[in-house]
Amino acid sequence: MYNQIVKKPDKCYGCGACIEVCPKKCLKLGKDNLGFKKVIMTDENACISCGACSKVCEALNMQKGENIQCLKRYYAQNKDSNVLKRSSSGGVFTALAEYVFRNNGYVWGVQMNGNGKNEFKCASNVENLKSLCGSKYVEVDTALPFSKIKEQVQEGKLVLFSGTPCQVQAVNLFLKNKKYDNLILVDLLCYGVQSPAIWEKYISEVSCNNSKISNVQMRYKEPSWENYAMKIEFDDGTIYKKSRWKDPYLLSYATNLYNRTICMNCEAKKFPRVSDITLGDFWQIDTLPVISKEINIDSGVSIVLAHNEKGNEILKQLDEYLYMHELPKQIFTNMIERFSGCSKKNSNKEQFFKQLKTESFEKTVKDNIDSQTYTWLRFKYLKVKRILKRIKN
């Protein structure tokens, strides 16, 4: 029998593994009304019910965590100010990628092309890495590069694959859960995957002349890591830039108005994960009793979680490039539920999409999200509190 997820599109992660292994090529990726990838049966008569697609389907074979402690927990920041500037948080991904390049390996990540669509890209040097850095809060437009990753790994090359927890689960499952010493799996602290169709509408409104995109920084650190902005550069020389408190996309992307449905019940986020290392923003740095004075918080700080000895040994080799300090066990225990929790349905979702049919994205967002005043005041309060703490210490 063919993959039952074909008949349950809301449960599909859109990874494309089933398409990759289908011997009759009777599956393809389609898209729903929000632009999310879904597997589609193109020719049911051609299906031989071999079950290959079901064996690699992460929706059917998701490894479930138990929300227990990771092997090691750190907070870290890259020592290179230029790396920090182009990174969304603490620049740890770049340090990991450079470690792979020094060992003649490959790094897989996501870049945004000139049409504003995310796609997987393989980098083999620092220059090619730049487009993979930074947050990209929208679903990848292409299937995962399963066969290419497998080919590189089996050739003996050191390979780093970075992606969301579900993407890393998909790669791991495609490789039949085999633990390769030369494959480094890095996932992210993920809130959920946002709609490509909504992103396209937003881009159409901020682009004055329908010019192609030359660069996007969804977390442009001006004036600081916490007080970031959206910055989009276009080929015609125009630049769109608005702070997180005013840009409609940054105001709404974490409100679950247009997240993928399966993200509200994601098992891949639980700990420990199948990845070797998890990276994310350490927004909870204020909970530390003491913050290392070498860390410049305004430039961004990462939380770094090693799930196994392989991941931890790699991190130990980055001491020359990172300021890295171990996170107290109890501090992380208090964060597990926050990091692994799934987004909840927004009660304004139906009204949001109804209004979006006749109104601009910006106006629809302003009419359907809660006031940001409290968030802004809390941001200021924590900033003052941190400064006082550091003066005291």
From TrEMBL:
<keyword id="KW-0408">Iron</keyword>
<dbReference type="InterPro" id="IPR007525">
    <property type="entry name" value="FrhB_FdhB_C"/>
</dbReference>
<keyword id="KW-0479">Metal-binding</keyword>
<dbReference type="Pfam" id="PF12838">
    <property type="entry name" value="Fer4_7"/>
</dbReference>
<dbReference type="InterPro" id="IPR017900">
    <property type="entry name" value="4Fe4S_Fe_S_CS"/>
</dbReference>
<protein>
    <submittedName>
        <fullName>4Fe-4S dicluster domain-containing protein</fullName>
    </submittedName>
</protein>
<keyword id="KW-0411">Iron-sulfur</keyword>
<dbReference type="InterPro" id="IPR007516">
    <property type="entry name" value="Co_F420_Hydgase/DH_bsu_N"/>
</dbReference>
<dbReference type="InterPro" id="IPR017896">
    <property type="entry name" value="4Fe4S_Fe-S-bd"/>
</dbReference>
<feature type="domain" description="4Fe-4S ferredoxin-type">
    <location>
        <begin position="3"/>
        <end position="32"/>
    </location>
</feature>
<feature type="domain" description="4Fe-4S ferredoxin-type">
    <location>
        <begin position="38"/>
        <end position="67"/>
    </location>
</feature>
<dbReference type="Pfam" id="PF04432">
    <property type="entry name" value="FrhB_FdhB_C"/>
</dbReference>
<dbReference type="Pfam" id="PF04422">
    <property type="entry name" value="FrhB_FdhB_N"/>
</dbReference>
<dbReference type="InterPro" id="IPR052977">
    <property type="entry name" value="Polyferredoxin-like_ET"/>
</dbReference>
